[in-house]
Specification:
The complex is a heterodimer of chains A (381) and B (87).
Chain A: H1 7-29, H2 33-37, H3 41-55, H4 69-93, H5 98-112, H6 115-125, H7 140-156, H8 163-179, H9 194-210, H10 217-230, H11 254-264, H12 269-282, E1 284-287, E2 290-293, E3 311-312, E4 315-316, H13 317-329, H14 333-347, E5 349-350, E6 357-358, H15 362-373
Antiparallel strand pairs in A: 1-2, 3-4, 5-6
Helix pairs in contact in A: 1-14, 3-4, 3-15, 4-5, 4-6, 4-7, 4-15, 7-8, 7-9, 8-9, 9-10, 9-11, 11-12, 11-13, 13-14, 13-15
Chain B: H1 5-32, H2 34-39, H3 45-78
Helix pairs in contact in B: 1-3
Chain lengths: 381, 87
């Protein structure tokens, strides 16, 4: 036979070797992407149960390794926030799971309202966010993110016990955003981040929708102010930080833009889609079937920070993970599959006790992945 | 790359070693949660080396091991027994 001991047989072996090297890893890593994208309940439940176990451990700042109290406080806050959002999205997509996960949502909200979680914001402002609602002072991160979760919970449980708090926070945020010269509420004194104002703005829209006042001029004005100051006209991405006068203080970047798409998709799907298109156009890269999102637009370079995580060969860890949510919310199954392959490769999922846990991710990473993998989809709005 | 019985054993040992290393480093990553330190940009040089070793082992187990096994199976099917290296 001509293949035996011949050059053609050896070529076949080489083709098999290199072909497998190129195509197998992404195929294998992305093999579960389809069921995640279609909203398979058993997968969502598997990860949600892991997150539920992790948040029941009564986490505190010492459970995180950021090196500073502020960032550890933010990560503690982010863990319960993302877990709560993930549970809300799961229940919204699968109402039959409400019995199991509604108590988890309540746990997340109660913990977010606890002193230990509010501490990071209170220490920066030297006042408590909830005690100072009548004032016009900032607290964009704590109040905006919390209010988004309250709004999402209100969608699936209109009579829940936090409706009054949702009303009071929304009233304060509308007033603060409307009177801010830059159109953005401060996260910390003197610091304005468009990404932190995305959930804030989305929470205002969700509240208006829940109370039947969605088509007010106030929302249109807030949205146009947000667009005017936050979006880089040359790329369509979000600036990472703004000054007091609304001028950019940092580049338009992937981590902030990708996360904003996720927060905005429920309340402002058109704006979310526009930013998502910019992320896909300016930042998305396909490496042998694995998806990655650049932290900076093509032609620009920069370093990583606490927001982006490490930037390796231009790719941002956070931007890549956050874009999973945008890809599902904005109905892009191809990008979702590629990004999921990357998340699977780096996250190393295992299945302890019938659950699903991303081994390398820790409590915050698993909560973020739950939120991203259950985001959207847009057509459910 | 010689496809001969001796190299078959070596190939098998190499694949098993890579997979074992991958599992061990996976366990280390799970227990130490180093990835969180990396995301917070708070890692030390040894931790960076550990992360790189984990990614290398995972890459090898996802890329090299399947490719080597597929190439081996194809070579057995085609009964290719010559050397693939230039003489």
């Amino acid at each position: 036979m001509i293949l035996r001991r011949g050059w053609l047989g050896q070529v076949c072996v080489l083709v098999a070797f290199f072909g497998t090297m190129v195509f197998f890893p992404a195929w294998w890593s992305g093999r579960d992407a389809g069921s995640w994208y279609s909203g398979d309940l058993s997968r969502q439940q598997g990860l949600a149960r892991t997150v539920a176990v992790q948040i029941q451990r009564d986490l505190d700042q010492q459970d995180f390794f950021t090196g500073t109290g502020l960032y550890s406080g933010e990560w503690l806050f982010g863990t319960y926030l993302m877990a709560g959002i993930g549970f809300c999205q799961l229940v919204r997509e699968h109402p039959e799971a409400a019995g199991e996960f509604t108590p988890r949502i309540e746990t997340c909200i109660q913990t977010l309202l606890s002193k230990k979680v509010r501490e990071f914001d209170a220490n920066s402002w030297h006042e408590d966010a909830l005690s100072s609602l009548p004032s016009n002072v900032g607290h964009a991160a704590y109040l905006g993110y919390l209010n988004l979760l309250l709004g999402l919970y209100r969608e699936i449980a209109p009579g829940n016990s936090y409706v009054g708090l949702n009303d009071r926070i929304t009233e304060a945020l509308v007033r603060r955003m409307a009177t801010a010269p830059s159109g953005l509420v401060e996260t910390y004194p003197g610091e304005r981040y468009p990404v932190d104002n995305a959930p804030l703005l989305a929470s205002i829209v969700l509240h208006a929708r829940a109370t039947g006042r969605e088509s007010t001029d106030v929302i249109s004005r807030l949205e146009s102010g947000y667009r005017k100051h936050s979006i880089d006209p040359s790329t369509g991405l979000l600036f990472q930080a703004l000054g007091a006068d609304g001028s950019p203080r940092d580049a338009a970047r992937g981590s902030g833009s990708a996360l904003a798409v996720f927060y905005l998709h429920r309340g402002l799907p058109k704006l979310a889609r526009e930013i998502f298109e910019a992320v896909r156009r300016e930042l998305a890269v396909n490496v042998a079937g694995f998806g990655a999102i650049r932290e900076y637009p093509r032609g620009q370079t920069g370093s990583g920070d606490i927001d982006s995580g490490p930037v390796v060969f231009g790719f941002g860890f956070s931007a890549t993970g956050f874009s999973l949510g945008g890809a599902r919310a904005c109905n892009d199954p191809r990008l979702f599959r590629r990004l999921y392959a990357s998340a699977q490769f780096a996250g190393a999922p295992i299945h302890p006790d019938g659950r699903l846990e991303f081994v390398t991710a820790g409590p915050l990473g698993n909560a973020i992945l739950l939120a991203m993998l259950t985001a959207g989809p847009e057509d459910q709005l | 790359m010689k496809i001969v019985p001796g190299s078959t054993i070596r190939l098998g040992i190499l694949c098993v070693a890579i997979l074992l290393l991958h599992v061990v480093l996976l366990e280390v990553m799970a227990r130490t949660r180093i990835i969180e330190k990396v995301m917070a940009m708070q890692f030390t040089f040894p931790e960076l080396l550990l992360i790189l070793a984990f990614l290398a082992a995972r890459f090898a187990s996802y890329v090299l091991v399947p490719a080597a096994l597929v190439a081996f199976v194809v070579s057995r099917i085609l009964n290719v027994s010559g050397s693939l290296e230039p003489k």
